Amino acid sequence: MLRVLIADDHEIVRKGVREVIEAHPGWEVCGEASDGQEALDMALREKPNVIVLDVSLPTLNGVALTRRLKRELPTANVLLFTMHDDDETVSGGLAAGARGYILKTDSGRQLEAAISALGANRPYFSAFVSELLLDAALNERKRSRLESFTVRELEVAQLISEGKSNKQIARLLGISIKTVESHRAGAMRKAGVRSAAEFVRFAIKHNLIQP
């Protein structure tokens, strides 16, 4: 039985993905999550074979979540299923460890093919993403800024952008305020910004949060 976990903050998207999975013999949905932290907790508990993620997830975005899953649940293959088709998001997601990347504009048949491929430990990319990868292979790939962030910096960056204070972030992540300040400084330096407002613009541009 191929066990699949779905993580998307839109119920209608989760429902559509579930219908594709349940129509396929031998596949089952082992869980649904509406934010990144819930998805991580559920994945560690349920140990799915394939995890279908959106990039723009609340609490813990898809890129940071993919990195955590790669480290903490290496047996699971991550499929990024998103509307974001820019070079930086694609390269950031793949560098984080995603084994598949397809767009929400792709057909249900492609989603099924992607899940099937990842279930067999093969990568799968939509035609658009494959073209980006080919172009990157032929030309020197520009490194996504997100690749230089640590997982903790990505987590702190997202929470800053969502308007959380250092104290709130420390409580949510179970770390000290001083540690939050250190990660905050590192994230802002790597983003090339000096103010919280600039950081929010950076976060929106790189799909850490939704505008």
- H/E topology pattern: EHEHEHEHEHEHHHHH
Query: Please, what is the CATH homologous superfamily of the largest domain?
Result: Response regulator
In the CATH scheme, what's the topology name of the largest domain? Rossmann fold
Strand content: 5-15%
Amino- and carboxy-terminal Cα gap? 38 Å
The mean pLDDT is 88
Tally of contiguous helical segments: 10
Named at the architecture level, the CATH assignment of the largest domain is 3-Layer(aba) Sandwich
Describe, in plain words, how this protein is organized in 3D:
It holds the Pfam family GerE. InterPro entries: CheY-like_superfamily, NreC/VraR/RcsB-like_REC, Sig_transdc_resp-reg_C-effctor, Sig_transdc_resp-reg_receiver, Tscrpt_reg_LuxR_C, WalR-like. This is Response regulator. It comes from Phenylobacterium terrae. With about 210 residues, the chain is an alpha/beta fold. It folds into two domains: about 1-140, Rossmann fold, CATH 3.40.50; about 150-205, Winged helix-like DNA-binding domain superfamily/Winged helix DNA-binding domain (Arc Repressor Mutant, subunit A, Orthogonal Bundle), CATH 1.10.10. It has ten helices and six strands; from the N terminus they run E-H-E-H-E-H-E-H-E-H-E-H-H-H-H-H. A six-stranded parallel beta sheet has the order 2-1-3-4-5-6, sandwiched between helices. Helix 1 links the parallel strand 1 and strand 2. The longest helix has 15 residues, at about 175-190. It is globular.
Secondary structure elements and their pairing?
Blueprint: E1 2-7, H1 11-22, E2 27-33, H2 36-46, E3 50-53, H3 62-72, E4 77-82, H4 87-96, E5 100-103, H5 108-119, E6 124-125, H6 127-138, H7 151-161, H8 166-173, H9 177-191, H10 196-205
Parallel strand pairs: 1-2, 1-3, 3-4, 4-5, 5-6
